[in-house]
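Risk register update: the risk of archive-format incompatibility is retired. Evidence:
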Amino acid sequence: MNRRALIKSASAALLAFGFDGCATSRIARKIATFPADARSPLKLSLVEASWDRVIRTTVGLRPHRDSGFVLRAEKLDEKLLVHNYGHGGSGMSLSWGTGYMAAETAAQHDQRLAAVIGCGVTGLTTARQLQRRGF
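Archived output:
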């Protein structure tokens, strides 16, 4: 089979599969689809949920700094270390802005090599902002 014959056959098959969506009446669609009552029902176990099964209750708060996040630069020998942490539960909202600010701080340094330590949303957005600036 050559390539042209393969493309013709594949096109005809795709066209045939698409005709099912062209059915205008409900009866035609119902015949063409898998009957809902033919499926076997799922047998799920009941969840044993009660207050006596609770081991402990904790509050899901993110660690944060009352004074706000930290964004500052520090020189380590020839390297520039940019601290960008302490966002608490606002990391998702603040990440692009503080990532931008951290990348701007790093861009003032002559080196164009960067390492981001941290894989949370703040680290990922900071890494993306650094990539945009050629790091």
